[in-house]
Amino acid sequence: QVQLVESGGGLVQPGGSLRLSCAASGSILRTNAMAWYRQAPGKQRELVATITSGGRTNYADSVKGQFTISRDNAKNTVYLQMNSLKPEDTAVYYCNADITYYSGSSLRSINRWGQGTQVTVSS
Predict the structure, then answer these.
(1) pLDDT of residue 36
(2) 40 CB-side CA count, 13 A
(3) For 104, phi and psi rounded to 5 degrees?
(4) For a Cys staple, 20 with which of 8, 27, 98, 101, CB 3.0–4.6 Å?
């Protein structure tokens, strides 16, 4: 009934920029906390950035000053603006969200992952 749909990944040159989007779809009342993670081959999944429903943000040390997380609550969408991209930023990027949704006459909450979008930074 609810899912997160990601877009915006692709191949970019070092120093380039990308903006990732992740939208919750379904019978959504609201999204609560949202986050971006990434996973490079052979490495653990890494928390990149988080944003609360009120817009409070946190970033991994590795991306501070480089990436910006933002959200549009009316669209149930979270964004990740990635600037000054480096080869070490190459990974599959996943969004994650706590979602409150309609289930009949009830409201339920669930945590969901996006499908992942590939970001490749290469010359």
Answers:
(1) 98
(2) 9
(3) 60, -125
(4) 8
76-93 pLDDT, tens per residue? 999 999 999 999 999 999
Q: Which residues contact 43 (CB under 8 A, 6 or more apart)?
A: 91
Q: What is the mean pLDDT of the chain?
A: 97
Mean of pLDDT values over 22-40: 96
d(CA 79, CA 69): 6
Tokens of 35: 């986050």
Dihedral through CA 1, CA 93, CA 77, CA 81, nearest 10? -170
